[in-house]
Design goal:
The complex is a heterotetramer, with two copies of chain A (416 residues) and two copies of chain B (375 residues). By secondary structure, chain A is an alpha+beta fold. Helix content of chain A is 43%, strand content 13%. In chain A, the strands form two sheets. In chain A, strands 1-4-5-8 form a four-stranded mixed sheet. Chain A has a four-stranded antiparallel sheet with strand order 2-3-7-6, with no helix packed on it. Chain A is globular, with a radius of gyration of 23 Å. With 375 residues, chain B is of the alpha+beta class. Chain B is 53% helix and 16% strand. Chain B is built from eleven helices and nine strands. In chain B, the strands form two sheets. In chain B, strands 1, 2, 3, 4, 5, 6 and 7 form a seven-stranded mixed sheet that branches. In chain B, helix 4 runs antiparallel to helix 8. Chains A and D meet through helix 11 and helix 13 of A and strand 8, helix 9 and helix 10 of D.
């Protein structure tokens, strides 16, 4: 019988036998993919072991404890994998899933458009069938890593006479073609984490349509659900003390290099979140800890961030226990916005006029300045707070839905 | 930390909630709060006899149920939901915990069982002047030796003093901070019931004038135990507050779905929807802090003082905010006496400043954190 | 030629000649009403002098400086007067206007209903014509002074097949009849400033219909406009130092007695507004002025209240100069809500645990306690902040109106 | 108090606004802020020659236009609207007012006309350490006598130091706080341009090392004059800030009416409508404080120090809030470099803490009010 105990034992035994930190990343991940240890909650016929989430989490935990590298998970890859697993054809699964896990392909997500940031189903990317392929024209935005992605998950309009949500189709698009041009989008904090993607007579193979014609919104919801689960931090986490593990093998070096590339767009994210960890140390090092006004603001911040953390853990505990999700599970994003803003206030109060400065003249090697000009992104990225509030009010609190102004044929909606 | 209640705890909550639904609907709260004592003896006796709740967190060795702080928190939360007016916080929390942590073995064996059984009502008289819950830095004094002390001074904001059988009074002796038992009927004890905003929570000013008191525990050694007791009281009040805030939230959400203006329910207005989500967030964050702190107390967390202040400050602010928001969302009707919202608003107002206002707890919390960093 | 100078001179001369502080209030007001000096901006044929508002303000100022009592203005009387002046029949004006100014009649306003607090046009008070009178059935609420009013301004539904705003008619109802029962409504702060009014087969004379059948909403808007102008403090104010004037005459005593009755429902209004005036003195007397946390809150409060006051004066100055009203004129109510809440916070912080107390145990003879349980009314009374925000967004900021769910025959709206 | 602008003042505003619309559209602001100096000489010369704005509140006797503080406020407000990057605040306000209130007659006659004409750019170097605008309690010292002093110390957050012809530097002598003129090209003067969040407002750290300086006014007698000058600077910065906040508000309101999501403009969503009204209130309240304070300065109000702190604190908070709200209401696009919103947000961030953050001004304001009460 499979239970956590036996699974943990088995994976440890397997790792003892096969783990070799001097394999190449590709060699090792190929092994993981072939044996199913890389994604144990995927089905057995598709590189997994068909484990329930709890057992998969146990496997991941053992990997972390052991110090073994996992399959390629960074970026959009796992979202692509999960979506294709659920909606992809046999051929698509064959073509893509394996190379996702081995890390050979990278992916990006082409959903948002300049005219439909919060309203993803409002896509106006025009897609017309010509023989055995589709011709795509349109513009996408807020696309992380598009500039080095091999493939894109594309949501585009194929029927303008259908209502908004019914005229969309989901595709996989080859990013390496002349019709696809990506341009990095500079942010107010000087980073450029996102791309604009311009598609001009770009080509999508007919067999790269995912799901039925006109059913793209349903497929996109799968991608979004997996994205949200990750954002809410509701996926199991595991950690091990770095010091316990010898990371001198060549595979670690290769993994770090991969990580550096994949994580580059995100390096300012800790600052975006407000760097609550620095608040107390900064107050102490500047002596502002003796200012009762600062103490009050600092206390409010630390209460807020602790409570947000505990709320997330309540949600995770309930999920792991298989209980129905309570309201606490959907509040993470709103809480994060409050935390980040409160943190910006505290850092400003603590740093005084130094808050005018940035880069090397800003305290903590520029971190404080970067916080102050990055925090405004928290309440926007990944769905604005306003959208989040709509969702919570309607789904969690069961309050009436907003009257819609976007029903009827989509071409008419555009004229409203 | 488990971050969730066990099945037994959920059952316990259900059980307690059902009891209060039966015995203390809001009509009953309104009746009790209009009485002079603000206390109903019969419900109290049922609480003691049917639920043994009066001794919930008193050790079994002293006649209590020996439950943990989490269960105490659940009970407080449910009392906060229904606004149960009683000396539970005074007697079963403040006094019982003060005895547990300060009294000697014989005194515990003598005094705690009667509290646990709901037969005696005790209260802790320790606040002075502005009512900040500082244990030391008091003016009340005691002179004497052994079992024979005389107390002088004034205690403020003494909870349920008019129904207490006896008082546990803090006073300074030559040896330092000490705790004394003072009988409620002693001559030289002057109890002034104060007019209060929240009629479901009564406080008095108690004047001691050469009043005899019996030493509890060792002379001059009360400080640590009292601070332990207070941490439990802070988190108990926090749990009570999040119960009240959650009830306000639920009632208000329901009201927005019923109340119609301009041909639609007010719940259908986006501005109301967005505010309800912020309201929800506010309550859930405070609940998390209150729950976490109760769990932390049960595993003997070293930073309990810090956590108790977090829980108290957070719950105080969330509850008051809930009260303000609920009245506003009820509109004119929310400001009337007939509507129930103000009862919780007033409890929130009272709980905001009782046992230390948020600013006081913020300062205490950061002080502890700076000490942690230095250590 | 009439100008401010000559008017001021004329009124002073008239007062010198006629003012007698030992007349009865009724005698004096009768004189004012007959000469037109009581309401100089009303038309000459209706007890006024037809002056523009600025000149009328000058007259009022002279009255105040002189210490002379004016016509009866407290309560709903002037709203009734202004409404009847604009929409009343000749007979109605004859019957009512004079006795309004002399103070012989008092009035109340029967608009709000339990089911339509913010949505006044949603009235469901049922009014049916029977011969030469109307039979009224329904319930009104938030009615100040109904228990001693002689007449009521009544908004009621006469047509259930018409759309919401088109089925209302405006009446004057005799409050002294068996069909009208008033009940004082106790508030959470123990005062009872408002009444519920129950109308059961109450009678309204046919000739007491004001304006056309079905046009009641338009008439009500006149009443509301005058009410709002008063609430915004945009009507000219004048003041004189009390000490300068000898107020020993009997008329003053009579006026004070009248005021005590008329003002009784409002005695807690200063507390409702937060008593900003007490904030600094309380901080000083408690020693909390040395607490930097209190200082910050106090400063925020005083900035808010000063800025609100200056904003109101900007609006008044612009109005007096005849300039188009800027946004500053409509913000008074929202600002007042913020001020009151901030004041409650400061009073709580300053009073500490004393904030639990009320009546004689509360600081300043119970004032502090009364503030804490009265402030919640500010953001509700006279139109909730939410309604106020709708109005400002749509009228001042010209943002789109909310889609209506209450069009079509009113009887169907009720079924929505 | 008039509580409104005169017809002439309204015309003046129109005139100034038109000038900046022509010369300093946001494209031009972006060009200038990317340059090393952050300063455009040609616009500055037009400002001086065509509008005489560089001497707007310098007395006519010293070559200025002799306008009042209200007009200065209008000019600042318009510069705040368009985000005009220039040493106006440094030279025409801080330095000019310091000279007006501290310098002797001859020095004023010598120095002010060149500032008024925009020929010389001066700046006030008085902040140290944390940048709080305290006039006394400084470490910078000067030694010497008569016209020959040597200065030592470090000045922080010196506005537009890299384009200044000379510095007015505060330093302690044996006789007390004194003001000195230090030439920008003097040896022993070390100017470190600092990296700033708001590229339209440049500050530097200035190190003085036995640097020669000429005494301005009387030795040891600079304090009162400097404080007067600072009050004007606080209200000038407040007026600049409300100009910026109002511009953000207008642009954001317009954007909500254009931006469509879910088949309708976002201005049609009630949650957005309600937030825009609070945003409006926030800006209008700060405007009232800034306008009132400028008027008060012109009638020589005794409580100007208090009012200036009210105006500065209020405008700082309103401006920052406007920046945060504007980015949020613009959504993702509001966080991009291409969108203009961040330029004002960064100015708001800089203005929040420059010349004293809100907490500092709150404390100062209450201190003055307590003094008033005591008097």
């Amino acid at each position: 019988m499979i239970n956590e105990q036996t699974v943990r034992k088995e994976v440890r035994a397997w790792l003892e036998e096969h783990w070799d930190p001097n394999l190449s990343l590709l060699e090792w991940r190929t092994k993981l993919t072939d044996t199913g240890w890389g994604m144990p909650d995927w089905p057995e016929e598709w590189y997994g072991k068909g484990y329930p989430p709890l057992l998969a989490a146990a496997v991941e935990e053992e990997f972390v404890r052991f110090g073994a590298v996992g399959v390629a998970k960074a970026g959009i890859r796992l979202l692509a994998g999960a979506t294709l697993l659920e909606h992809g054809s046999e051929d698509q699964k064959k073509q893509f899933l394996r190379r996702i896990l081995t890390g050979e392909d990278t992916w990006c997500q082409l959903f948002s458009e300049p005219g439909s940031g919060s309203d993803l189903a409002g896509s106006t990317t025009r897609t017309v069938k010509e023989g055995d392929h589709w011709i795509v024209n349109g513009q996408k935005v807020w696309t992380t890593s598009a500039h080095h992605a091999d493939w894109g998950l594309l949501l585009a309009r194929t029927d303008w006479d259908a209502p908004k949500h019914k005229g969309l189709t989901y595709f996989v698009i080859d990013m390496h073609q002349d019709g696809v041009v990506t341009k990095q989008l500079r942010q107010m904090n000087h980073h450029a984490s996102f791309n604009e993607v311009f598609m001009t007579d770009a080509v999508v193979e007919a067999h790269h349509q995912v799901g039925e014609l006109g059913q793209g919104w349903g497929v996109a919801l799968t991608t979004l659900a997996h994205e949200r689960r990750r954002a809410d931090g509701l996926q199991p986490m595991a950690s091990a003390k770095d010091t316990e593990i010898d990371r001198s093998g060549s595979i670690y070096k290769e993994e770090r290099a991969e990580n550096d590339v994949m994580m580059a767009p995100y390096i300012w994210y800790p600052q975006r979140a407000g760097r609550v960890d620095l608040a107390l140390p900064r107050a102490i090092e500047t002596g502002k800890i003796d200012d009762p006004t600062v103490v009050q603001e600092l206390a409010r911040l630390l209460i807020l961030s602790s409570s947000a953390e505990w709320t997330a853990r309540r949600a995770r505990a309930a999920q792991q226990a298989g209980k129905p999700q309570g309201p606490e599970g959907s509040l993470g994003k709103l809480a994060a916005s409050q935390v980040a803003r409160a943190a910006a206030r505290v850092h400003t109060a603590v740093s005084g006029a130094d808050s005018m400065l940035m880069d090397e003249d800003s305290p903590r090697d520029g971190i404080i300045g970067e916080i102050l000009i990055s925090v405004p992104a928290v309440s926007i990225a990944g769905g604005t707070d306003e959208i989040q509030r709509n969702i919570i009010a309607e789904r969690v609190l069961d309050m009436p839905k907003e009257a819609r102004s976007d029903t009827g044929p989509f071409k008419d909606v555009l004229k409203n | 930390m488990e971050f969730q209640f066990t099945g037994e705890q959920e059952q316990f909550r259900e059980f307690v909630r059902r009891f209060f639904n039966d015995t203390t609907p809001t009509t009953e709260v309104r009746r009790i709060m209009e009485t002079e004592s603000g206390f109903d003896e019969s419900i109290w006796q049922r609480l003691a006899n049917e639920l043994s709740l009066t001794g919930i967190s008193i050790p079994e060795a002293y006649g209590g149920s020996g439950f943990g702080t989490v269960e105490l928190g659940i009970a407080m939360e449910e009392m906060g939901r229904c606004l149960y007016p009683s000396p539970f916080l005074a007697s079963s929390v403040l006094a019982a915990k003060a005895l547990e942590f300060v009294a000697g073995e014989n005194q515990k064996a003598e005094l705690l069982p009667a509290i646990a059984a709901g037969e005696k009502i005790a209260t802790l008289a320790f606040l002075e002047n502005e009512g900040a819950p500082v244990v030391t830095d008091i003016n009340c004094t005691a002179q004497g030796s052994d079992s024979e002390f005389k107390l002088d001074g004034t205690k403020q904001f003494v909870l349920d003093a008019t129904v207490a059988d006896y008082f546990l009074v803090t006073a300074m002796t030559d040896k330092g901070l000490s705790l004394f038992q003072v009988d409620g009927s002693t001559a030289g004890l002057n109890i002034n019931a104060l007019k209060v905003i929240d009629q479901t929570r009564r406080v008095s000013r108690v004047e001691l004038n050469n009043t005899p008191g019996e030493l509890i525990g060792e002379e001059g050694a009360a400080q640590d135990g009292l601070e332990q007791a207070l941490n439990i009281a802070f988190l108990a009040l926090a749990n009570e507050s999040v119960g009240g805030a959650e009830r306000l939230f639920e009632d208000t959400l329901e009201y927005t779905k019923l109340r119609r203006q301009f041909g639609r329910t007010i719940a259908s207005f986006q501005a109301i929807k967005h505010r309800m989500t912020e309201y929800l967030l506010n309550v859930e964050l405070a609940k998390s802090a209150a729950y976490y702190t109760a769990e932390a107390a049960d595993i003997g967390a070293e930073d309990l003082a810090k956590l108790a202040s977090i829980a108290k400050a957070s719950a105080s602010e969330a509850y008051l905010q809930a009260g303000i928001e609920s009245i506003q969302l009820h509109g004119g009707i929310g400001f009337t006496w007939e509507n129930n919202t103000h009862l919780w608003f007033k409890r929130a107002k009272s709980s905001e400043v009782f046992l230390g206002d948020p600013a006081w707890h913020h300062a205490r919390m950061i002080e502890r954190m700076v000490e942690e960093q230095a250590a």
